[in-house]
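Our preliminary data section would be incomplete without showing what the modeling component actually yields. Below, a chain of 160 amino acids is followed by its predicted structure, encoded as tokens that our downstream tools consume directly.
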Amino acid sequence: MKALTLWQPWASLVIEGCKPFEFRSWHVPRSIIGQRIVIHAAAREVNHSECVRLLRALQQGGATAAETCLISEKAIPLLAGRSWLDYPLACGLGTAIVGEPRNGIDIAEEFGVPRANDSDRDQHANWGWPMLEIERWEQPIRMRGAQGLWNWPTPAEAGL
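Predicted structure:
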């Protein structure tokens, strides 16, 4: 099974159903569409100021909130209810099926804005990968990640 590493809080936002699209600069490989992948939280520490800005934008609503393409009513309680120290790092959180990627501009139009961007990196919003049929694991599984899509080890390979 493939895995995709996301910085926090984005990994948790996907697993909790707040983030229906994972935005990337690149189109997902055809072989992954319709496949279940592991959503992995990176080891990178949470950027507290980024979380505060995101929470404020969602609470205020308007175009800035819509550009995130997050489901505000789900994302606000998650972001407001956790300390930035409470997000699990360097672990798999669960799985999702990757849907047919869509152009970021088309997705933004559905949210009533001219662009889609859930971070401060515009170049990463070219493609929205739908995150479907999410299955959150009861307990995160510690694992080192990698950039891009990478192979999640079998239990034997992971020493479990």
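The helical segments are 10-15, 48-60, 62-67, 72-80, 104-110, 155-158. Strands lie at 2-6, 21-24, 36-41, 91-98, 102-103, 127-142, 149-151. Preliminary results of this kind motivate Aim 1 of the renewal.
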